[in-house]
Specification:
Elements lengths: L5 E2 L2 H10 L7 H10 L21 H16 L3 H11 L4 H8 L7 H9 L4 H10 L4 H21 E2 L26 H19 L2 E4 L3 E4 L3 E7 L7 E6 L1 H4 L6 E8 L6 E6 L1 H10 L1 E3 L2 E9 L4 E4 L7 H4 L1 E3 L3
Parallel strand pairs: 1-2, 5-7
Antiparallel strand pairs: 3-4, 4-5, 6-10, 7-8, 8-12, 9-10, 10-11
Helix pairs in contact: 3-4, 3-8, 4-5, 7-8
């Protein structure tokens, strides 16, 4: 049967991912189920069968399931943990024990591993922990990367935008790599933003990793690198912030430019931020903010608030 490439928007992409059965479905098989009520039995559909790790230890199998939920369906680690726990009829803490205590890692260290390009660090740790199942682990990670490639090629939704050109001191390998979080860089960017805002708000201090505190205002700063594979930026705002938003609070969304040569930011006042929070989806208490460039008119917009004039409000941010 011949195959054809189609173009869809981010909303449809997200819908297909939500309807896909973990370890089983491809984009094509999801559409078959939704449109015709039938399943497709072919090699593409069998990339991640549940029987795949049938003879592997339960700990390994459940860790792989968590990784797959995070990478394949773009879920947070806590959300993926709950899904895997429900699927296996156990408690989330039991799943956490598998990828934390049994691997000798903290939850934050696991989060860092999940952000590494190609997940090579996670692969090496699992092979070292389960050496007799290295073939299962290798095939899983190879297949996981292959599934992402298929989703991006079979459902083509790439868009293009050239952000402001600003000097950048960070270099990357492949432009589509999933980047490891650089907390030192983020801190430098937030301090640079504080210096930019001194004329408006006065002196400041950086509280924790996210808040610029001025005499009469607070600015919550969130950073996002650019995801080449999805042509988007993504920020998460925890419930502790958005649920206790004050009239003097601002939201600053700092972004790496699309060509990776600098940084920019958009700042929203209290009312604008609260409107955006209400429009965003809520996952485990975290508001997910998405920004992308739409292919039909090549305009940069919030996915959740398309009427907001992002391009006019975007400003460059220099690191001196």
């Amino acid at each position: 049967m011949g195959k054809h490439m189609i173009e869809i928007d981010e909303i449809i992409m997200k819908f297909l991912k939500e309807k896909a059965e973990p370890f089983v479905d491809s984009p094509n098989s999801v559409l078959h189920k939704l449109l015709f009520g039938t399943s497709v039995s072919n090699k593409e559909q069998q990339t991640f069968p549940h029987s795949y790790a049938k003879n592997a230890p339960k700990a390994l199998s459940q860790i792989l399931e968590v990784i797959e939920e995070v990478v394949k369906f773009d879920r947070s680690r806590p959300e993926a943990t709950r899904i895997v726990a429900d699927r296996n009829g156990t408690a989330p803490q039991t799943i956490i024990d598998k990828y934390c205590r049994q691997l000798g890692k903290t939850a934050s260290e696991v989060d860092m591993l999940l952000r590494e390009p190609g997940l090579e660090g996670f692969r090496a740790i699992l092979i070292n922990r389960f050496p007799s199942h290295s073939d299962v682990i290798a095939t899983f990670f190879n297949g996981l990367n292959g599934w992402e490639d298929k989703m991006e090629h079979h459902i083509h939704n790439q868009v293009h935008y050239h952000g402001p050109s600003v000097r950048n001191t960070t270099t990357y390998g492949s432009s589509s790599d999933r980047k490891k979080r650089d907390t030192a860089l983020e801190s430098a960017l937030k301090n640079a933003l504080g210096e930019r805002l001194k004329d408006k708000f006065g002196l400041f201090t950086l509280k924790g990793q996210s808040q610029l505190v001025f005499k009469g205002a607070r600015v919550l700063c969130k950073f996002s690198s650019f995801r080449d594979d999805q042509s988007r930026w993504f920020w998460g705002v925890s419930k502790a912030y958005w649920e206790n938003w004050e009239p003097t609070d601002y939201l600053a969304l700092i972004m790496e430019n699309q060509d990776h040569d600098g940084y920019s930011f958009v700042i929203l006042n209290s009312n604008e931020a609260q409107f955006l929070f209400k429009a965003c989806s809520d996952s485990a208490g975290e508001k997910k903010i998405n920004m992308r460039i739409y292919a039909d008119d090549n305009v940069l917009r919030f996915q959740e608030w398309k009427e907001f004039d992002v391009e006019t409000r975007t400003q460059s941010l220099d690191l001196e």
